[in-house]
Amino acid sequence: MVELLDLIPGLPEEIALDCLTRLHSTTHPLATRVCKTWHHLFHSTHFYLHRKRTGHTQKVACFVQALPLNSASDTVNVKPVCSYSYGVTVFDPLSQSWDRIDPVPKYPNGLPLFCRLSSSHGKLVVMGGWDPTSYSSVNDVFVYDFTTQSWRQGKDIPESRSFFAVGELNGRVIVAGGHDDSKNALNTAWAYDVSKDEWSELPRMSQERDECEGLVIGSEFWVVSGYKTESQGHFEGSAESYMVGSGEWNRIEEAWRPSQCPRSCVGVAKHGKLFGLIKSASGIRMGICRVQLGESTIVTGSTYTGGPQELYLVEDQTGKFDRLDMPDEFRQFIRSGCCVEI
């Protein structure tokens, strides 16, 4: 609990807190420099949860997106190994604004390939992937604080894994499935407490699930489809769900269409039924990425391989796809994304 005395001289604590709660998140970096009291308040989980409880947070979509060639590694005297370098792009659906976050200091020329995004208490979490030069898997965890506009390195993922499911539930980031450095599919799962910078092991799933997809439905974290080591590329129709505190996974049969890859294209219908966005009415067919933003969903993709990205806002209640404009400098390929409630 943060001491709230003297937030604003002359005002009662409750009114002063209410005033500061209403400040837009873009003003927080400047507000933290007003005084030590404000600095501690704006960095506290208590203040974030108070803003969330009173409806003063904002949901943005963060994407792992290919960078324009003139802003990526071609400007550095380093020969790039891959065609593209990737960075983090932020889209605010309310203001329709786009921005790019500064590179992770450890990877100034581009994020690890196939890294995954999640969030916790208003912070962006980047984890895993392949080193963009050596293609070896990495266990790195990086946390971006929108209040300080800076990165910090978190505690490494305990087990080496790639192509795993990830999602945030009750402030903790859960990773599950994927495969290890020997391409063996995994059934293990871990939870990361961002504020404590600690990992805790969760129960194992009922089976191995490589290239599975993670999403949150209500108060449960779902791991959708994937395949076993001996079934390379043959995606399962089952899924598993985990509720924090339950201590076990619940297996759901026939939750997904067998043989269809679930990565980034799992939609959730009104009654909780899963469906593939590749069959959606938008016309996008390649490189689909889905980000849930409260009552609506952001969907990106292209109509053909290598084509420019298209952006749609999908109303969850009606399923209607509304096309949104994208600036030309932000129409590069989007690999994955997540929602951050700032």
Report the count of strand segments.
22
Instruction: Report the end-to-end length measured between terminal Cα atoms.
Output: 20 Å
Query: How is the CATH topology of the largest domain named?
Result: Neuraminidase
The CATH class assignment of the largest domain is Mainly Beta
**Mean residue pLDDT:** 89
Largest sheet: 4 strands, antiparallel
Shape: globular
Low-confidence stretches: 72-82
Structural class: mainly beta
**What's the quaternary structure here?**
single chain
Please identify, by name, the CATH architecture of the largest domain.
6 Propeller
What is the number of helices? 4
Q: Can you say what the CATH homologous superfamily of the largest domain is?
A: Kelch-type beta propeller
* Residue share in β-strands: 25-35%
Radius of gyration (Å): 20 Å
Q: Could you say how many structural domains there are in total? A: 2
Main β-sheet, spatial strand arrangement: 3-2-1-22
Helix coverage percent: under 10%
Order of helices and strands: HHHHEEEEEEEEEEEEEEEEEEEEEE
Give an overview in words.
By secondary structure, the chain is mainly beta. The chain folds into 2 domains: 13-53, no CATH class; 59-341, Kelch-type beta propeller (Neuraminidase). It is built from 4 helices and 22 strands. The chain has helices spanning 13-21, 28-31, 36-42, 45-53, and strands at residues 59-66, 86-92, 97-100, 116-120, 123-127, 141-145, 150-153, 165-169, 172-176, 189-193, 198-202, 213-217, 220-224, 239-242, 249-252, 266-268, 274-276, 286-293, 296-302, 310-315, 321-324, 334-341. A hairpin with a 2-residue loop joins strand 12 and strand 13. It is globular. Residues 72-82 have low confidence and may be disordered.
